[in-house]
């Protein structure tokens, strides 16, 4: 039984069990993933993961509760598990207090998409990786395969989404313990594109053998590669939440209050087409939204609870109110001109340990990671020892944002804890006239 049939079989078995006055929602997630771990450029572990989970929520007026269960993939056994979950919810829900902010979408809607992609043959991809890493100390993980999400409600909602993707996340280690971290991910494996990505990592690895520089705290010109900018936007993504903005917890509070601005070079959209997230959430169909328009605040992500509490209109954002497939418009900086435009300053390929040093002011802190290089006169010069930055997003992505790369890069989450993460972010690299290092 394939995943779609499995989901519909569960749904068909659930509907006849419903009693008068009851309503339900059913969330379904599954994957069929191939994982390969590398160490010292050799395959150390390979395996296949097939798993599925369902979350059943039962509603009785304004009372509700949910039950998450793992599934076996065997139709009869999973119908029994779902029936037992329903019985346990029936024993609990009548005793719960009414939820004053419950605003269920009771409109019938349908959404179905299947993005198959062009998955590489696993053996061929592994063979290319091993060949490209010959003579190197490579450690990493390759994950690939389809992921499935379904949603249905007793009020006629029905959504199904299937998408295939791959993600190879790896590091090349120098004999001195330093490393260059790289990723190659997407829906269509392109052998020449992967070869270029590996060649770039090899080139950076050669510079790690030079004596590392320790820079004095201060302001520096800098280039943030797309993966580094992704770390920043991962932290800022909750800033577009209607709940966070209404409660004063958004790091973009000053932007939406018109007391600060971002660079007019920044335009950010929550875009359904082309992303790997489904076109729906458990609260209904998602919408294309313009979150930033030439540096000015755009639309907010509004879930049903925020809509009820603050008198807003829900836009299918889901309970977490985070963008699922944001796309930032590129600029006029060609990839081949990055170093020459930077001239002298920092080339930052990765950031880590990011957090807020002053959330209401949009101030972030974090560490440079892996291969951060000092550039002089448009040429890589030497690696830079790990440094901490502390700066306001309204500064380095405000008046000090000089350019964005022309071709944004689709970045997929590499997390596999419990299950492969879904969604995507498409971001360019950013050339900054000033970036503040503190120690």
Overview of the molecule:
This protein starts with a helix and ends with a strand. The chain is of the alpha+beta class and 439 residues long. Strands 1, 2, 3, 4, 5, 6 and 7 form a seven-stranded mixed beta sheet that branches. The radius of gyration is 24 Å and the shape is globular. The chain is built from ten helices and 22 strands. Helices cover 22% and strands 39% of the residues. The chain has two domains: 3-207, PmbA/TldD fold (2-Layer Sandwich); 218-437, no CATH class.
Q: Give the distance, in angstroms, between the N- and C-terminal Cα atoms.
A: 57 Å
How many β strands by DSSP? 22
Please identify the oligomeric state: single chain
What value does the average pLDDT take? Answer: 94
What percent of the residues sit in helical stretches (DSSP H or I)? Answer: 10-25%
Total individual domains = 2
Q: Could you name the ranges where pLDDT drops below 50 across 5 or more consecutive residues?
A: none
**Biggest pleated-sheet summary:** 7 strands, mixed
User: How many whole angstroms does the radius of gyration measure?
Assistant: 24 Å
Keywords: Hydrolase, Protease
InterPro entries: Metalloprtase-TldD/E_C, TldD/PmbA_sf
GO molecular function: metallopeptidase activity
Organism: Azotobacter chroococcum NCIMB 8003
């Amino acid at each position: 039984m394939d995943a779609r049939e499995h989901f519909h079989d569960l749904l068909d078995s659930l509907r006849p069990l419903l009693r008068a006055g009851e309503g339900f929602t059913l969330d379904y997630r599954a994957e069929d993933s191939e994982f390969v771990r590398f160490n010292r450029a050799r395959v150390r572990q390979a395996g296949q993961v097939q798993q599925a989970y369902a979350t059943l929520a039962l509603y009785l007026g304004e009372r509700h509760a949910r039950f998450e269960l793992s599934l076996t993939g065997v139709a009869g056994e999973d119908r029994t598990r779902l029936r037992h979950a329903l019985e346990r919810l029936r024993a609990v829900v009548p005793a719960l207090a009414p939820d004053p902010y419950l605003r269920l979408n009771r409109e019938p809607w349908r959404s179905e998409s299947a993005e198959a992609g062009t998955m590489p043959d696993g053996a061929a991809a592994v063979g290319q990786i091993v060949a490209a890493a010959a003579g190197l100390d490579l450690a990493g993980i390759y994950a690939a395969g389809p992921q499935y999400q379904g949603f249905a409600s007793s009020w006629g909602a029905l959504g199904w989404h299937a998408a295939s993707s791959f993600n190879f996340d790896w590091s090349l280690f120098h004999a001195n313990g330093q490393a260059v971290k790289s990723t190659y991910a997407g829906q269509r494996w392109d052998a020449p594109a992967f070869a270029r990505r590996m060649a770039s990592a090899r080139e950076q690895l050669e510079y790690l053998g030079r004596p590392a520089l320790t820079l004095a705290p201060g302001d520096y010109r800098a280039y943030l590669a797309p993966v580094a900018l992704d770390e920043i936007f991962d932290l800022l993504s909750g800033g577009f939440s209607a709940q966070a903005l209404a409660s004063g917890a958004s790091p973009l509070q000053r932007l939406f209050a018109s007391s600060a601005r971002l660079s007019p070079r920044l335009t950010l959209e929550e875009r359904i087409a082309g992303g790997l997230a489904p076109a729906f959430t458990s609260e209904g169909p998602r919408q294309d939204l313009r979150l930033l328009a030439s540096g000015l605040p755009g639309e907010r992500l509004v879930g049903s609870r925020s809509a009820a509490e603050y008198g807003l209109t829900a836009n299918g954002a889901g309970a977490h109110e985070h963008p699922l497939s944001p796309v930032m418009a590129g600029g006029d900086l060609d990839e081949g001109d990055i170093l020459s435009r930077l001239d002298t300053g920092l080339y930052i390929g990765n950031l880590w340990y990011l957090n807020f040093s002053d959330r209401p002011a949009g101030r972030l802190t974090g560490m440079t990671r892996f291969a951060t290089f000092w550039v002089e006169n448009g040429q890589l010069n030497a690696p830079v020892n790990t440094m901490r930055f502390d700066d306001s997003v309204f500064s380095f992505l405000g008046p000090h944002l000089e350019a964005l790369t022309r071709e944004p890069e689709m970045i997929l989450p590499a997390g596999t804890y419990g299950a492969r993460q879904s969604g995507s972010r498409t971001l360019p690299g950013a050339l900054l006239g000033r970036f503040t290092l503190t120690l």
